[in-house]
Amino acid sequence: MSTARTSTLASLRGSIERLEAHGDAHDLNKITLGHKAADAVLHGGLALAAVHEVFAEGHQSATATGFIAGLAGRVSPRRPLVWVRQDFSEIESGALSMSGLAELGLDPRLLVTVRATDTDAALRTAADALACDALGAVVLEVWGQARQLDLVASRKLTLAAAASGVTALLLRVAAEPRPSTAETRWIVRAAHSPPGAPPKPAAAPKPAAPWSAWGAPVFDAQLVRNRHGPVGRWIMEWNCDECLFREPSAYPQPLAATPAHRPHQAQAFAGQRRAS
User: Fold this and answer.
1) Own/partner pairs, 106-111, CB within 8 angstroms, 24+ separation
2) CB–CB of 238/207 below 8 Å?
3) pTM for this structure?
4) Which of 64, 119, 240, 263 has the fewest CB atoms within 10 Å, measured from its CB?
């Protein structure tokens, strides 16, 4: 190992030790997720200005994208968000849908997406973005078992996040967890999203409306690393209107009130109701 590399590692270790010495769980700035049990385990919510990892199997990439979009929505509701994606991620799981993110509650006008040619470029871009304290969060999405995302890289991201106050969210699809300095690590899967409300006993049977099969996004979220406390596993429902996680509703409603800024949709829906 070269002298320069040895010096760099020693400097990083010293910086991390100083951060950890003053990084008591109760001193961290946090944002609640909304899910009472998860917030309790996290001692009040998700730590800001830190690194958080979300892992998922390849066929669960859409689920993981929705979950990390929810985290980003909690961490950075009114500040710009930079989403760095490795090219291979887009090849495997498709492009991000701005309309889909808007349905989840994120404002596409505050989202900047960056496509990186490879893992090295994605890491450099994410590190540069984390240095900008005008941002609320940076999402780094990398597909597969990237050797570049090792403990040294994780420490660099942790230091950058702590220095700027910007939260780093790492989305790892089709990858196995490795040692890191992440504050939390999650493994997410899709959970059952019950459609509609239960039928009224006295009501005559009617054909199901097309929208009755829609349910709120529901995640099977397993917290497998928590630097300041225990771990756990919960079924977490994302409330797109309030932009927070919660315990799944017993009988979720199939429709939400139309926002005031979309009156044309309200009129169209009213016309459908009169015609039915």
Assistant:
1) 106/69, 106/72, 106/73, 106/81, 110/76, 110/78, 110/79, 110/80, 110/81, 111/80, 111/81, 111/83
2) no
3) 0.76
4) 263
